[in-house]
Amino acid sequence: MAKTLYDKLWDSHVVRENDDGTSLLYIDRQLIHEVTSPQAFEGLRLADRQPWKLSANLATPDHNVPTANREQGIIDPVSKLQVDTLDENCDLFGITEFKMGDIRQGIVHVISPEQGATLPAMTLVCGDSHTSTHGAFGALAFGIGTSEVEHVLATQCLIQKKSKNMRIDVNGKLNSGVTAKDVILAIIGKIGTAGGTGYAIEFAGDAIRSLSMEGRMTLSNMAIEAGARAGMIAVDQTTIDFVKGRAYAPTEAQWLSAVDYWRDFKSDDGAYFDKIISLDASDIQPQVTWGTSPEMTISIDALIPDPEQENDAVKKEGMQAALDYMGLKAGQAINEIPVDVVFIGSCTNSRIEDIRAAAHIAKGKQVAGNIKQALVVPGSGLIKAQAEKEGLDKILLAAGFQWREPGCSMCLAMNADRLEPQERCASTSNRNFEGRQGQGGRTHLVSPAMAAAAAIAGHFTRIDAR
Amino acid sequence: MEKFTEITAIAVPLDRVNVDTDAIIPKQFLKSIQRSGFGPNLFDEWRYLDHGEPGMDNSTRQINPDFVLNQARYANAKILLARDNFGCGSSREHAPWALEDFGIRVIIAPSFADIFYNNCFKNGLLPIVLPEAQVNDLFDFIEANEGGQLTVDLQEQKIHYNKTSELSFELDQFRRHCLLEGLDEIGLTLEHSDDIKAYEEKQKAITPWLF
Predict the structure, then answer these.
(1) Which helix (H) or strand (E) covers residue B165, if one does?
(2) CB distance A193–B206 less than 8 Å?
(3) Exposed / middle / buried, residue A303 (Cβ in 10 Å: 0-12, 13-18, 19+)
(4) A81 vs A265, A362, A367, B97, B128, CA distance in Å?
(5) Is B192 within a domain?
(6) A189: phi > 0 → left, psi -120 to 50 → alpha, else beta; which?
(7) Parallel, antiparallel, or unpaired: how do β-strands A157-160 and A164-171 relate?
(8) Could you tell me the pLDDT band of residue A464, with boundaries at 50, 70 and 90?
(9) Which entry of A9, A84, A248, B182 is 20 to 30 Å from A204 by CA?
(10) Domain that holds residue B163
């Protein structure tokens, strides 16, 4: 029978099927960070259990780490305790961890693909909803809670019920200045933040195929913002070329058989999808979110929508509450809205391609006078080093951006990088929820190119891609 | 985990769609390395008018009188009535920990985000999905009847309210069983250790680079 990519990933990892419709699913890789793991390790200790397969785990601190003045260590004692606890747990149990001084340290969802620890055809989990990122490699990757982190540590398995299959096709040629970030925001705008709930999404179509691995990771990363725990893209030559030669990738002796195995991880012709959504790439314009949910997104040339035009009463109220929180009015042109802060980073957009895109826009220009802070936070120490090798740091610094150390930073403001109440931020992160980047902060989700362009212009603007 | 059988309590109505886990428990409280103590900071940014940080004495903070959890008629609520896509966003299990620590044992909504829904069951919380029209009826009932209680019976999968009204709900049988018995899932899985080892042996031949 013809199978979808998700069917193949699922079937190849079922350890046993239970009578009640659930399955015990084998997990090949678990990524661990400091925020969602301490209680899991504590649970192991209390029950006197040991990790099932040590080598399946890879850890790094990312949410709490400072992005400036690292030589001073972590100043906030509560943050420090959490990172110290991760270090102690990894040392105690013998789990590989890239600690804060290690050049390989960074955001979990950036470092794992970078190391080749994310591979096609595997199952991968992490106590973090943006684990969907790794689906870009033709892997089944999804976020879990802390109890499940403990479950995977102890058993290398999870009890799961299979999701439904959804395919989202994006066909045609992407417009100039339109990036993977704009594509995924446009998708979320179309299907809504609960549109993918209960589904595993496969992104397909020639516009998706044309994306680099960095772009594909941006896309899969935000599948969770459409409600789907997992988003994935079939394995092709782009995937295989990216993986080759990385530290945790198969050795030369195993390489050919691995590639041979991976090539099958695509949906068969005629495979059944419960739902198919199609977008025409040429309809997608650069996006800017205007509200407090990622589905509240519009094209750069559009006007902020009017809640009065919405018929659904609950939705109308939600739109009005979002406008009030964001300090915006219906009918305003989004490209005239001034910005206070610019944040380029996060597991969505902190890879080398993202930093190149920002530097390309910033080259020879200056950050506008109304911008209080323009941060560039690379996703890992290795990306930072690569960008510096290419001179991107110098371009960005000369333009007035700050060049920081790797971590989650202002995406969720668990470290010192945060918005003040009512500050408006052009952010390359993934969530514009109330208070996400700091209490009272106002987040507009955009691509790295749009964020850089907003920094230079002082407001959102159509990107001059030349 | 505490067993769940039946509960009779007041329900508090949270009339908002897309309530995300950042709102349920803001990030500054995620720095705790404990599993308990999150209740006082449940919905922190909506419940208080000032900014909360870990370690603050919450009894001295400015309460937001307009927020529904602060209204006297809903004190001691153990059931939360919510709208679509409750618990969306971050996978933080601190969200169900905060709800449970506050005293909530049941959440009723037309839909939940997947990860949050899953996390509830690990912590003795029962999330119930009902059709929107039935959720609307419950909103109407609790808003019109101060002190009115709901009874949630997990064994029978029923909700009783307003003396004679009764609703049925669907639930995965494995999850129902674990909640009713207060079972440790890890222990259950480890009973299948031989199956896991057999799977690993089989896979070593197929995907040796993963072993």
Answers:
(1) strand B165-168
(2) no
(3) middle
(4) 42, 38, 36, 20, 37
(5) no
(6) alpha
(7) unpaired
(8) low
(9) A248
(10) 6-183
**A439 with B200: Cβ contact below 8 A:** no
The pair of structure tokens assigned to A308 is 């009065």
Give the count of domains, chain B.
Answer: 1
Say whether residue B59 is in contact with chain A using an 8 A CB cutoff: no
φ, ψ at B47 (rounded to 5°): -80, -30
**Which of A26, A145, A314 faces B118 most closely, judged by CB atoms?**
A145
CB pair distance less than 8 Å for B210 and A119: yes
Provide the edge-to-edge strand list for the sheet that holds A442-445: A402-403, A373-376, A341-344, A424-427, A442-445
DSSP string, A168-202: EEEESPPPTT--HHHHHHHHHHHH-TTTTTTEEEE
Of A47, A145, A321, the CB nearest to B119: A145
* pLDDT tens per residue across span A123-176: 999 999 999 999 999 999 999 999 999 999 999 999 999 999 999 999 999 999
* Separation in Å, CA A111 to CA A76, A212, A347, A414: 25, 17, 10, 19
Return the residue matching tokens 């990933």: A9
**Secondary structure (DSSP) of A249-297:** SPPHHHHHHHHHHHTT-SPPTT---SEEEEEEGGG---EEE-SSSTT-E
Tens-digit pLDDT profile for residues A98-115? 999 999 999 999 999 999
Q: Answer whether B123 sits within 8 Å of A147, measured CB to CB.
A: yes
Judged by DSSP in three states, A45 sits in helix
Q: Smallest CA–CA separation between B62 and chain A, in Å?
A: 15
Residue with tokens 């970030």: A181
Q: Is A315 helix (H, G, I), strand (E, B) or coil?
A: helix
Q: What share of chain B is helix, strand, coil (3-state, %, to 5)?
A: 40, 20, 40
**ipTM value for the complex:** 0.95
By DSSP bridging, strand B149-153 and strand B158-161 are antiparallel
* Residues 171-210 of chain B whose Cβ lies under 8 A from any Cβ of chain A: 172-174, 177, 184-186, 188-190, 192-193, 195-196, 199-200, 203, 206-210
**Shortest CB distance from B189 goes to which of A21, A159, A314?**
A159
Report the candidate in A90, A92, A99 with the shortest Cα–Cα distance to residue A381: A99
A398: tokens are 């000369």
How far lies A180's CA from each of A23, A92, A346, A450, in Å? 34, 40, 15, 12
Q: What residues of chain A lie within 8 A of the CB of B20, using their CB?
A: 431, 433
Question: Chain A closest CA to B172's CA: distance in Å?
Answer: 8
Interface contact flag, B96 A414, Cβ < 8 Å: no
In this structure, is residue B137 part of a structural domain?
yes
A65, A147, A160: best to mutate for the B interface, most B CBs within 10 A = A147
Residue B128 to residue B112: CA distance in whole angstroms: 9
Q: Which residue of A has its CA nearest to B136?
A: A314
With respect to residue B145, please indicate whether it lies within any of the assigned structural domains.
yes
CATH number at residue B71: 3.20.19.10
The DSSP string of A153-164 is HHHSEEEE-PPE
Among B31, B122, B195, beta carbon nearest to A82: B31
**Mean pLDDT, chain B cut into blocks of 10 residues (211 residues total):** 92 95 96 94 96 92 96 96 96 97 97 96 96 97 95 97 94 93 92 97 97 94
Q: How many CA atoms lie within 13 A of A54 on its CB side?
A: 10
| Residue B188 belongs to a domain | no
CA B165 from centroid of its chain's CA atoms: 24
